[in-house]
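ARCHIVE CARD
CATEGORY: sequence design from structure
SOURCE FIELD: tokenized fold
FIELD CONTENT:
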């Protein structure tokens, strides 16, 4: 059972039953605006802010994570921070030149570390599957991309010099400050089957093997969301992974879980697990900050009140700022 405090729900009183994070169908016209910020023990999350004047950190002891996802070859202003987290779909079809452009853009940003994973649109990075399926996505046979060249863009000397770390079912130890803690990070590109894109898995026959390989870490990056958490496709269908939800709830309980994939779900939720991990004992136990960082405007928030298209990474789809205290909470 999950207990959640989100931008869409008020905190429950002690006498109230737990609020479930799993969201049912919600008519598009009933969606409230995103709250500008959320705060919890040792952390503040900014969802809506002035990009020309981002909010200050709560204290010098907080480190700033800036979260992006589903950029699909677009570039836009990104607030400064210590660490940039990108949870996939750097490109739309995975052409070499599009990876080069995306990584060049990320390299130009001031964040000392940029941790990146793939998404279902980054086709060539799913090696083996790509060689057997690329013709479905490319106009001509000669359009097969050089996977080694793409991996060199992501992991070669230039990427390393820019602080770019590409994770594909891998862990990474992150230390931001000399006197700060070490954060364990894991990145996974997989999502449940949808249309036969890259890194798709069958929810019934393959989910356990893929998802249960994710270790217990402080920061979890996945391309897709857990079931019921910021995962409403067109705001009416919960599309996240049940197995990922179970793994996060029962085993991982990360401090921060960032994902994208479901563009309409952009936002943040904070879940308290309770002292025994089931959310029944109030707000004293560990908490996970869930961020859907998708920057591609989609759904009812993709247009202004006047009916105009929201620009890429515009209001409602901005990079999400997460300020977390750089030490263990007692």
């Amino acid at each position: 059972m999950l207990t959640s405090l989100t931008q869409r729900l008020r905190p429950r009183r002690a006498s109230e039953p737990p609020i479930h994070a799993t969201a049912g169908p919600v008519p598009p016209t009933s969606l409230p605006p995103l709250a500008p910020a959320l705060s919890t023990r040792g952390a503040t999350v900014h969802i809506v802010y002035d990009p020309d004047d981002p909010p200050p950190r709560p204290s010098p002891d907080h480190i700033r994570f800036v979260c992006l996802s589903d950029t699909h070859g677009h570039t836009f202003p990104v607030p400064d921070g210590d660490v940039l987290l990108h949870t996939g779909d750097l490109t739309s079809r995975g052409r070499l030149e599009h990876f080069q452009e995306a990584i060049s853009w990320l390299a130009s940003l001031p964040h000392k570390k940029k941790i990146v994973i793939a998404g279902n649109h980054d086709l060539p990075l799913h090696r083996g599957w790509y060689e057997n399926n690329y013709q479905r996505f490319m106009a001509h046979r000669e359009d097969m991309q050089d996977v080694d060249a793409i991996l060199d863009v992501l992991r070669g000397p230039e990427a390393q010099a820019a602080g770019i770390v590409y994770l594909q079912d891998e862990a990474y130890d992150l230390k931001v400050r000399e006197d700060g803690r070490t954060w364990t990070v894991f990145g996974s590109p997989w999502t449940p089957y949808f249309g036969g894109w890259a890194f798709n898995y069958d929810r019934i026959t393959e989910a356990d093997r893929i998802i249960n390989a994710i270790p217990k870490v402080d920061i979890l990056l996945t391309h897709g969301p857990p079931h019921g958490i910021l995962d409403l496709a067109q705001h009416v269908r919960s599309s996240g992974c049940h197995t990922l939800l179970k793994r996060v709830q029962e085993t991982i309980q990360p401090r921060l879980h960032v994902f994208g994939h479901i563009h309409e779900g952009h936002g943040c939720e904070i879940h308290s697990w309770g002292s025994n991990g089931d959310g029944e004992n109030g707000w004293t136990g560990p908490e996970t900050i869930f961020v859907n960082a998708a920057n591609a405007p989609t759904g009812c928030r993709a247009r202004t009140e006047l009916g105009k298209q929201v620009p890429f990474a515009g209001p409602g789809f901005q990079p999400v700022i997460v300020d977390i205290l750089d030490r263990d909470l007692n």
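CARD ANNOTATION: Residues 34-52+59-325 form a domain with the Purple Acid Phosphatase; chain A, domain 2 fold (CATH 3.60.21.10). The helical segments are 96-108, 129-133, 147-155, 157-161, 207-211, 242-252.
SHELF: design records, drawer C
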